[in-house]
Structures are given as C-alpha cells and as structure tokens.
Amino acid sequence: MAVTVSLWLTHPDLGNDDCMTAEDFATEAEARAALADLDAYCGVAHSDCAFVEVDGPGGCEVIERPGVAARARREAARDAQLERSEAAVQAGMAFGVEAYNDAMGW
C-alpha cells in the first residue's frame, strides 16, 4: 500500500485548493525518511509550505512545520494590518481625519 506525502500552504482540513506537491512512497518507512529530511525532499520551491500531510493505510496525519507556519501567520497578520492602514488612508482622504481614526479603531 502506498503512503502519500503532500505539502500544503494552509491546513488541509480548511478545504483550500493549495496542495503544492505530493509524492507516493512504497512504504511508510520511505515516507518517514522523506519527512526526516524535508528540506531535501521538498527543496526551495516548496519551502513555504506550512503543513505536511501523510496519508496511508495507517490513517492520515497532518504535521505543522513550526517555523514555516509561524512565518505564514506573521505575514498574514502584517498583510491584514497593511490592508487596514490603506483603508484608513482612503477613508481619511475622502472624509477627513475622524474617518481615518475610526478606520484605525482609535
């Protein structure tokens, strides 16, 4: 029975279509060997994948790559802050400083 190792940008259970790559291994031992040296397995092209899914006859396991997942959360928070700031600037230009302050939550 084959064991599949898949690399995801977001958690596979979220239903997003962001599985970046997957590879089948003949045994679970081969799949675990790939996990042990994941950087060599996935290379630079998929180093931003925050989750690894191991799916085989023994069940399905999702592993979070701590450093990558934390970086993705920081980038998402930064992007949200930038969007909020841009919306506040637009509100300020259209309706004045009070609209800017309202948009920033001040």
Mind sketching the topology for me?
Elements: E1 3-8, E2 19-25, H1 28-36, H2 38-42, E3 51-56, E4 59-64, H3 66-95, H4 97-104
Antiparallel strand pairs: 1-2, 1-3, 3-4
SS strand fraction: 15-25%
Give the CA-based shape.
elongated
Mean pLDDT: 85
Helix content: 40-55%
Discrete helix count: 4
Integer count of domains: 2
- Strand tally is 4
Could you characterize what this model shows?
The structure is a single chain. The chain is α+β, with helices and mostly antiparallel strands and 106 residues long. The chain has two domains: 3-64, no CATH class; 68-104. It is 49% helix and 24% strand. It has four helices and four strands; from the N terminus they run ββααββαα. It has helices at residues 28-36, 38-42, 66-95, 97-104, and strands spanning 3-8, 19-25, 51-56, 59-64. A four-stranded antiparallel sheet has the order 2-1-3-4. Helix 3 (66-95) runs antiparallel to helix 4. It is elongated and about 65 Å long. The mean pLDDT is 85.
Q: What would the keywords be for this entry?
A:
single chain, 106 residues, alpha+beta, 2 domains, four-stranded antiparallel β-sheet, 49% helix, 24% strand
In a nutshell, what does this entry contain?
By secondary structure, the protein is an alpha+beta fold. Helices cover 49% and strands 24% of the residues.
